[in-house]
Protein: Dihydrodipicolinate synthase family protein
Organism: Speluncibacter jeojiensis
Amino acid sequence: MSEPITGIVGYPVTPFVPDDPSTVNVEVLHQLIDRMIDAGVDAIAPLGSTGESAYLDHDEWVMVATESIRNVAARVPTVVGVSDVTTAGAVERARVAESLGATALMATPVSYWPLTEEEVRVHFTAIAAAVTVPLMAYNNPATTGIDMSPEFLVRLVAAVPNITMVKESSGDIGRMRRLRELSEGSLPYFNGRNPLALQAFDAGAAGWCTAAACLVPHRVVAFHRAVVAGDAACATECFAQMEPLLELIVSRGLPTTVKSGLRSIGIDAGDPRRPLLPLGAAEAARLAGLIAACER
């Protein structure tokens, strides 16, 4: 990777054909990726939790990885999620993503059984050893049940050369400040908790990993550009416009809310895959209103 990844990392949902959640809609996947890149996002990250990677079979996962990387066409970096419940599965996904041309990989520990720190360390070390591209270690205890402390993450990055980035989604801004302190500012970390984006950049985050770029890409990019320009007033105002939307999309799960929001702006990405269910009419209407408010 010639340049470090920074800025807005946009997370596309995995679209399914309307009324047929068993079939991936490649055309809409391309549309979502193009829309985010055209708006100015700095990287694309398919097959995260937003992309329902846990609900895809192997062939579907390979298809989405292939089509995403092909369609991005190196216009921006592509960070492919390779998480799997087994180490062997994550290693296989990592090797496939690298062979397809992924710029970097992202993984979170996914487990039925609670994992010790040593088990998490061995898991990440095996993934990193299987590839040469950089790996982002993703901490999301709300969905995985496994919480990697800042101390553990800094030790992990120091011990494994191509684990070079951290995505922190615990919802604790103090974790990000601690990552900066422990690494003496050398470790790039990304905010993965949407409502904390403004605070995260203030705490030194290298970027924001967000599914909101699917819905309001121009607003997300405008906010980040204000941050980079040092225009605190503009950044604060822009974030305040987005904040109610950000709170809502995380309240019911990103695949569910983002797909409903996309439908409200004329992009039908289908319904989320069961057991996830679409938003009800009242919630969908509220979400549509918040998207419209962001674009005014």
User: Anything to note?
Assistant: The CA atoms of residues 39 and 236 lie 20 Å apart. The chain has a mean pLDDT of 96. The chain has one domain: 7-231.
